[in-house]
Protein backbone atom coordinates (compact mmCIF):
# COMPACT_ATOMS: atom_id res chain seq x y z
CA UNK A 1 0.00 0.00 0.00
CA UNK A 2 1.45 3.36 -1.00
CA UNK A 3 1.24 6.54 1.09
CA UNK A 4 -1.20 7.96 -1.45
CA UNK A 5 -3.54 4.98 -1.06
CA UNK A 6 -3.40 5.34 2.70
CA UNK A 7 -3.98 9.09 2.81
CA UNK A 8 -6.41 9.70 -0.03
CA UNK A 9 -10.16 9.91 0.23
CA UNK A 10 -10.67 9.59 -3.52
CA UNK A 11 -13.42 7.04 -3.02
CA UNK A 12 -15.50 9.50 -0.99
CA UNK A 13 -18.89 10.35 -2.51
CA UNK A 14 -18.90 13.70 -4.28
CA UNK A 15 -21.82 15.67 -5.66
CA UNK A 16 -22.16 15.89 -9.46
CA UNK A 17 -20.64 18.95 -11.17
CA UNK A 18 -23.15 21.55 -12.37
CA UNK A 19 -23.19 22.46 -16.05
CA UNK A 20 -24.28 26.02 -15.29
CA UNK A 21 -26.17 28.23 -12.85
CA UNK A 22 -27.82 28.02 -10.40
CA UNK A 23 -25.01 26.79 -8.18
CA UNK A 24 -25.29 25.57 -4.59
CA UNK A 25 -23.69 27.81 -1.99
CA UNK A 26 -20.84 26.69 0.21
CA UNK A 27 -21.98 25.61 3.67
CA UNK A 28 -18.97 27.35 5.27
CA UNK A 29 -18.50 30.67 3.46
CA UNK A 30 -21.72 30.89 1.37
CA UNK A 31 -19.78 31.45 -1.89
CA UNK A 32 -21.05 29.68 -5.04
CA UNK A 33 -19.75 26.15 -5.54
CA UNK A 34 -19.30 24.13 -8.71
CA UNK A 35 -22.21 21.88 -7.74
CA UNK A 36 -25.88 22.18 -8.77
CA UNK A 37 -28.27 23.99 -6.45
CA UNK A 38 -30.56 20.95 -6.51
CA UNK A 39 -27.93 18.74 -4.80
CA UNK A 40 -28.98 17.65 -1.31
CA UNK A 41 -26.10 17.47 1.14
CA UNK A 42 -22.96 19.31 2.13
CA UNK A 43 -21.35 21.34 -0.65
CA UNK A 44 -18.10 23.26 -0.37
CA UNK A 45 -16.57 25.86 -2.69
CA UNK A 46 -13.14 24.99 -4.13
CA UNK A 47 -11.35 27.09 -1.47
CA UNK A 48 -13.16 25.52 1.49
CA UNK A 49 -12.86 22.07 -0.08
CA UNK A 50 -9.09 22.56 -0.27
CA UNK A 51 -8.95 23.78 3.34
CA UNK A 52 -10.95 20.75 4.51
CA UNK A 53 -8.57 18.47 2.62
CA UNK A 54 -5.63 20.15 4.38
CA UNK A 55 -7.29 19.61 7.78
CA UNK A 56 -7.98 15.95 7.03
CA UNK A 57 -4.58 15.23 5.46
CA UNK A 58 -2.31 12.66 6.99
CA UNK A 59 0.01 14.04 9.63
CA UNK A 60 2.72 11.39 9.39
Observed structural traits:
60 residues; alpha+beta; two-stranded antiparallel sheet; 13% strand; globular
Shape: globular
Helix content class: 25-40%
Name the quaternary structure: single chain
Radius of gyration: 13 Å
Spans of at least 5 consecutive residues whose pLDDT stays below 50 are: none
Which band does the percent of strand residues land in? 5-15%
Number of DSSP strands?
2
Q: In DSSP terms, counting alpha (H) and pi (I) runs of 4 or more, how many helices? A: 2
* N-to-C span: 15 Å
SS-based class = alpha+beta
Average predicted local confidence, pLDDT: 77
Task: Describe the fold and architecture.
- This protein is an alpha+beta fold and 60 residues long.
- The chain has one domain.
- It is 27% helix and 13% strand.
- The chain is built from two helices and two strands.
- It has a two-stranded antiparallel sheet with strand order 1-2.
- Strand 1 (23-25) and strand 2 (32-36) form a beta hairpin.
- The chain is globular and about 35 Å long.
- It starts with a helix and ends with a helix.
- The model has no long low-confidence stretch (mean pLDDT 77).
How are the SSEs ordered, and which strands pair?
Layout (H helix, E strand, L loop, with lengths): L2 H5 L15 E3 L6 E5 L9 H11 L4
Antiparallel strand pairs: 1-2
Describe the structure concisely.
The chain is of the alpha+beta class. Helix content is 27%, strand content 13%. The protein is built from two helices and two strands, in the order αββα.
